[in-house]
Specification:
The structure is a single chain. With 268 residues, the chain is mainly α. The protein contains eight helices and four strands; from the N terminus they run H-H-H-H-H-H-H-E-E-E-E-H. The strands form two sheets. A two-stranded parallel sheet has the order 1-4. A two-stranded antiparallel ribbon has the order 2-3. The longest helix is centred in the middle third of the chain and has 37 residues. The structure holds a DNA duplex (21 and 21 nucleotides). GO terms for molecular function: DNA binding. Its main location: nucleus. It comes from Quercus rubra. This is Myb-related protein 123.
Length: 268
DNA sequence: AAGGGTTGCAACCGCTATTCC
DNA sequence: GGGAATAGCGGTTGCAACCCT
């Protein structure tokens, strides 16, 4: 395409922003608003590329930014949304007022992802014997979402760019649902989870043979549901109150909030 | 106290999508 | 319609702070 680089790097500052730079950028954005970042950088007299200015503003200088101290509620929400959306950090951040995609991504990679990894390595030891035969038959496939997603598995992840859709999907997954105890530690759960998704807004084209998505006859754990989502569908999905979903309800007695108590119905 | 290793996070990079002319 | 500019995203890197021996 012959696209020019976002900035010529000569003569531009890189690395950590100084207090003065922050002040200049903040004052300028307050005065003139966001957008046109390349011109903004020039006009504000900042020796930074526009991209860098945009990132600094969005991730650090915006007045509505909440920083640090991610609460347990927020962490649980991140886990739920990640399970649903995968590494769509910006979408996840959109559900957490004041949080940025970068912060959530970092938090996931340094905190939650680690817990999940520990959890999975622990459970994988225990289930090693059972899975040995399956591993011989199927190569381990990585999900499309990168390392963290590969660690967690993606059986409930809704891919927002896809080609096919379904009326109803019924997935029995052997994946371990994630539950946090009151000390924020991942706890063991029952291995079998039934997930059912129903949608009235997705397209109703040809019936889909879901067996084609299965990695193996009895190994749906890496199954990923692919939908072609209409704009209002994904918008509804992201605007709904996740706490109202049966899957995300506490169940009243245990503090658990995952799919271990029965089918998950997503009715749109 | 020192220095080597680890961690957390801000910033950068490369890419795609969208908008504008 | 095509190319450039801009916006936005997710993955990766660099480095300061912290921890451990």
């Amino acid at each position: 395409m012959g696209r020019s680089p976002c900035c010529s790097k000569e003569g531009l500052n890189r690395g950590a922003w100084t207090v003065m730079e922050d002040k200049i950028l903040t004052e300028y954005v307050k005065l003139h608003g966001e957008g046109k970042w390349r011109n903004l950088a020039k006009r504000a007299g900042l020796k930074r590329c526009g991209k860098s200015c945009r990132l600094r503003w969005l991730n650090y200088l915006r007045p509505d930014i909440k920083r640090g101290n991610i609460t347990r509620d927020e962490e649980e929400l991140i886990i739920r949304l990640h399970k649903l959306l995968g590494n769509r950090w910006s979408l996840i951040a959109g559900r957490l007022p004041g949080r940025t995609d970068n912060e959530i991504k970092n938090y996931w990679n340094t905190n939650i992802g680690k817990k999940v990894q520990d959890h999975l390595s622990h459970t994988s030891k225990r289930s090693n014997q059972v899975q040995t035969q399956e591993k011989q038959n199927h190569s381990v496939e990585r999900s499309a979402g990168g390392p963290a997603e590969a660690k967690i598995g993606s059986s409930c992840v809704v891919r927002t760019k896809a080609t096919k859709c379904t009326k109803a999907v019924n997935v029995i997954t052997s994946e371990q649902p994630i539950q946090l105890d009151q000390h924020n530690q991942i706890i063991e759960t029952k291995p079998e989870v039934e997930v059912e998704v129903q949608s009235s807004m997705v397209h109703h084209h040809d019936p889909v043979d879901f067996s084609q998505f299965m990695l193996g006859e009895n190994n749906p754990s890496n199954f990923m549901m692919d939908f072609e989502l209409e704009e209002n569908f994904i918008s509804d999905l992201l605007n709904m109150d996740f706490s109202q979903l049966p899957c995300f309800e506490d169940g009243g007695d245990s503090g658990s909030n995952t799919c271990d108590k029965g089918p998950l119905f997503l009715n749109f």
